[in-house]
Amino acid sequence: GEADLLTEFATPIPVIVICDLLGVPADMAQQLLTWSHDMVAMYQARRDAAIEEAAVRATIACSDLMRTYMAERRKARREDLRSDLIRAEEQGAKLSEDELVTTAILLLNAGHEASVNGFGNGLASLLAAGGDFGDPVRLVEEMLRHDSPLHLFERTATHDTVIEGVHIRAGEKVAALLGAANRDPAVFAEPDAFRPDRDPNPHLAFGAGIHFCVGAPLARLELATSAGVLLGRWPRLRVVASVRRPTFVLRGYERLVIAPA
């Protein structure tokens, strides 16, 4: 039959993994998803006062929950990421309590939104190209490059500088178009083609330098494992219906209905 890949497969996996890593009960997954959606809506180009107010409410509620869970974990350590973050804080000058809480929220938001979009975008690209996936590890890199889940990110200049002849003053923002960089013909042969065996594949889907995505190893593992399971069971799939999200920064699908080919 048919199934929406996003709601039935791509969405549940990363949030359950994040819950497990943070030691948060799995039955909180739906609430965490709701908060995450409200917070990342702030990245939309056409956000309004209602979106901003919902994001603030979600941030406060999620922060309060994380502080409660962190307090509980201080009393009873386990082999989970929450305990590791607390140990880093206690070692001094590494993580403040606020940083500890915001890191947990960052892992939730980035670890869920980007993973879902990366899987949906990538599978749609793969199926449009014919569906021959080959090595899951190389496939994931091409999924991330060809239709990047995060198309744009902003940085603020801390001092006056010049980039390629363009003068940028301190305080001005620079928009890094990661999606465009990943289709750069000076770097990638046939940049618009989806090639599952592309190697090397120096894409910038995870950013670069000091701001390189802290969750990149986890995202790659999730995508490679879930793609291998799905395509191993159904090596021939087709897209029945698809609807894009009306967003640009976080690029993905609202619906991606698939069926056996």
List keywords for this structure.
261 residues; 13% strand; 3-stranded antiparallel sheet; alpha+beta; 9 helices
What do you see in this structure?
This protein has 261 residues and is of the alpha+beta class. It is built from nine helices and seven strands; from the N terminus they run βαααααααββββααββ. It has a three-stranded antiparallel beta sheet. A hairpin with an 8-residue loop joins strand 6 and strand 7. The radius of gyration is 20 Å and the shape is globular.
What's the helix-strand series?
A: EHHHHHHHEEEEHHEE
Please estimate the helix content: 40-55%
Beta fraction: 5-15%
Radius of gyration: 20 Å
Number of helices: 9
Q: Compute the separation of the termini in Å.
A: 10 Å
Query: What can be said about the biggest beta sheet?
Result: 3 strands, antiparallel
- Strand ordering within the main sheet: 1-7-6
- Please, what is the oligomeric state? single chain
Number of strands: 7
Q: Assign an overall shape.
A: globular
Low-pLDDT stretches are none
Structural class: alpha+beta
> What is the residue-mean pLDDT, rounded to a whole number?
89
Task: Compose a concise summary of this entry.
Helices cover 51% and strands 13% of the residues. By secondary structure, it is an alpha+beta fold. Helix 2 runs antiparallel to helix 6.
